[in-house]
Amino acid sequence: MSMRTLPLLFLNLGGEMLYILDQRLRAQNIPGDKARKVMNDIISTMFNRKFMEELFKPQELYSKKALRTVYDRLAHASIMRLNQASMDKLYDLMTMAFKYQVLLCPRPKDVLLVTFNHLDAIKGLIQDSPTILHQVDETFRQLTDIYGGLSAGEFQLIRQTLLIFFQDLHIRVSIFLKDKVQNSNGRFVLPASGPVPWGTEVPGLIRTFNSKGEEVKRTEFKHGGSYVAALKEGSLELYGDRVLKLGTNMYSVNRPVETHMSAASKNLASQTQESIVPNPLAKEELNLLARLIGGMGIQKPSGPEPGFRLNLFTTDEEEEQAALTRPEELSYEVINIQATQDQQTNQELARIMGEFEITDQSRRSASKGDDLLAMMDEL
């Protein structure tokens, strides 16, 4: 397990979250000023300096439920509210999109280019906010400093850690199904065509060398694919050409996106319920989570501006039906961390969560999202 994986996981999932929210804000015809406020508030919170400092510290990945809680708080950092079903769908879309990108990376190092594609697109959402742009650029420089000099082996370990995190997720997404890059069982289709990784040759030739290192024989074979050589390597510069398209906004063309549980996922969920046996690492995870969320610096809503509810489904009826049919084991409503004995940590977490309280007026204007705001009270 790589201790450098969490920042890449968080930033890429966060980028996918912003793509989805931007698309739904436009689809629901949310007024431009409110939509901009939501995006600016979330992005500003996401790239908060203290938050980034905690994020970039070498550490193991959080559990899926703990990480989901961070995104829940992030999604509610502004006047927008999501109810449980919409938040579940949002997280499903985020995770499956980034899983697809990690699987299709030509080289392990290319996960960094995927991250830069997300950051480039995020900057396009906040062109009118120079302060937030500076926050994103600072994160870009941190990524370059920390990851720019890593070896191929270290990137392979990061990629392996990411794939272990995603390995049991097989949620069907309509865009992937329509584009025939995902099967009906929720597993992705790996292409047998396109450019090969930078620095490698198109398959089809076997070279044989003697003991002196001299080439003595060449044998050609049919590889069955349609590969081409990579024209150039993606740039890691601030305004460079990434070449790789993975991580760009697939929602830029407005089309509905649905998610469905495959039968395999439902069966797996019933077999992988969280153990009630206390996890010896749970206390440390709680400590880390408390620090991470505490570093977000989420501001309390100020002024009389009313909130609004965003629906990730086409209709309210679809949203309600999704909430009823989703397997309980795949819902992230409660984080089950056995760390109740640590009074100091609980007090710190309670203090942090107290700062997240929203005004009564905001609660009334977004009643369908109230249950989300109590998500961590069960700790």
Q: Explain this structure to me?
A:
This is Protein OSCP1 isoform X2. It holds the Pfam family Oscp1. InterPro entries: OSCP1. With 379 residues, the chain is mainly alpha-helical. It has a domain at 5-190 and 235-261 and 282-330. The protein is 49% helix and 7% strand. It contains 15 helices and 8 strands. Strand 4 (205-209) and strand 5 form a beta hairpin. Helix 1 runs antiparallel to helix 2, helix 1 packs parallel to helix 6 and helix 6 (110-125) runs antiparallel to helix 7. The chain is globular, with a radius of gyration of 22 Å. The protein starts with 5 loop residues before the first helix and ends in a 6-residue tail after the last helix. Residues 268-281, 333-342 and 357-379 have low confidence and may be disordered.
Shape annotation:
globular
Average pLDDT for all residues: 80
Kindly name the structural category: mainly alpha
In quaternary terms, these chains amount to single chain
Can you list the strand order of the major beta sheet? 1-8
Q: SSE order, as H and E? A: HHHHEHHHHEHEEEEEHHEHHHH
How helix-rich are the residues, as a percent range?
Answer: 40-55%
The main sheet comes to: 2 strands, parallel
Rounded radius of gyration (Å): 22 Å
Strand content: 5-15%
Number of strands: 8
Which spans have pLDDT < 50 for at least 5 consecutive residues?
Answer: 268-281, 333-342, 357-379
Helical stretch tally: 15
Taking the alpha carbons of the first and last residues, their distance comes to 27 Å
Protein name: Protein OSCP1 isoform X2
Organism: Odocoileus virginianus (White-tailed deer)
InterPro entries: OSCP1
Pfam families: Oscp1 (PF10188)
